[in-house]
Amino acid sequence: MSNKKNKEIEISDSESDDEHDDAGSDRDSDLDSDGNYIGDKELQADFEGRNPEDCDFHGIKQLLRQLFLKSNVDLGALAQIIISQNYVGSVVKQCLDDGQEDDDEDDDGSDGVFGITTVINITKRKDETCIQQIRTLLTTLAEENANDKTKALVNKILSDDSQHVGLIINERILNIPAAISVPLFASLQSEVEKAVKKNMPYSFRYLIWICKTYNTGDEGSEILFANQEEKPLLDEALASFEVDVTEQADLSQWDYEGGALTPCRKILIFDGSKFNNLVRLLKEEVENV
């Protein structure tokens, strides 16, 4: 399948070459609790969305590790599923000219994947080991962190095989701007619609979305979303619950404006018919930033 190219996003760079050379020793301190870069140096590059390919395996797996951390999920097998269904979903790659692409043909691509946006049917694929692990993880996390109503909903949607559940994966390195999510989700929206028309299993009764968040621990304080475009989705969820992942993160907290934020995961559950509306909301969030 030919690669698809989406809207290119340019990130300006205010950093000089000399500053770049002097910054190497500080790189370890520029990582957040998930291992993402959070320094104030901006990169200059153009990015595009493409169909996942075999050469993206290691890069996709690394991004999945950012999301799932040390959870008992076979991330290699999950990456293979994402690649196998490459007619749905995109990876974010750096735009290269023809000469660069020719030079990099033999590269395994492990360092060249900057983001992944896709949806996986965790009902249709429920017999695959890594999907079984994700379903078990969701059930366990709900049991330990959700209220009774949400626990019941999670158990219900994961036990009824007649109503398919889609797992949205929206992960990228932190210094890629939220603006790139707009063409990625527009593409995913179109691909899902085409798949449904072909009677492929992408018509979902429910959607589950795992968001990377941070909080101060203060009751009533604002939740900070690692992916800014996901912020307005919280109010649209049928149910949600939060999981503190401090023990799984390499660093327990992320310094922020003189304080410290605790790394969390916010699990959101949506009516599957609302997907187009979710895409609209995240687009509006990006445009209003």
What does this structure look like?
By secondary structure, the chain is an alpha+beta fold. 33% of the residues lie in helices and 22% in strands. The protein is built from eight helices and ten strands. It has helices at residues 17-22, 57-68, 75-84, 98-103, 129-145, 148-159, 181-197, 275-288; strands at residues 9-11, 45-50, 90-94, 113-121, 165-172, 206-215, 224-225, 239-244, 254-256, 259-271. Strands 1, 2, 3, 4, 5, 6, 7, 8, 9 and 10 form a ten-stranded mixed beta sheet that branches. α2 crosses α3 (75-84), α5 packs antiparallel against α6 (148-159) and α7 (181-197) packs antiparallel against α8 (275-288). The protein is globular, with a radius of gyration of 19 Å. Residues 1-28 and 102-110 have low confidence and may be disordered.
